[in-house]
Amino acid sequence: MGATAAAVVFCWLGMVLAISFIEAPLKFQAPGITLQLGLGIGRLVFRALNAVEIALASLVMLAVALDPPGPVPLTALGVSIAVLAVQSLLVRPLLRRRSDAVLAGTVEPAGGMRERSHAHYVYAGLEVVKVAALLAAGIALQVGSFAG
């Protein structure tokens, strides 16, 4: 089961890296992209990513419940899941309200498309923490599966 949990964690990690650190920043560099289009794409992509992350976190929790690992992977998984919960329940709603306001024209970023809200920086910082925790969890689970 440790190998299964590790595989799910590495899948989760890959999705976060691909979307948050590759797709999200690059979409605004595409020719002809507008703020409205970029925000719309971002909202769809991150809503889908969030749903998949919740599913993967659930699978990992099931796998570790069936075959509990040691304290290192459990702690790293706990951090990953806690970060996901904070992002989902607290930060994404703030970002959604901000993008609603920008799309409605009631808030205009002073620096154009590249200006970010404070919630965006919080989300990005949490993504870095989540990536580190997922990497630690995946490695610890994989090492544990070789040891067991």
TrEMBL record:
Keyword Transmembrane helix attached: yes
Keywords noted in UniProt: Membrane, Transmembrane, Transmembrane helix
Transmembrane segments: 6-24, 44-66, 72-91, 121-143
Protein name stated in the entry: Transmembrane protein
Top-rank lineage group of the source organism: Bacteria
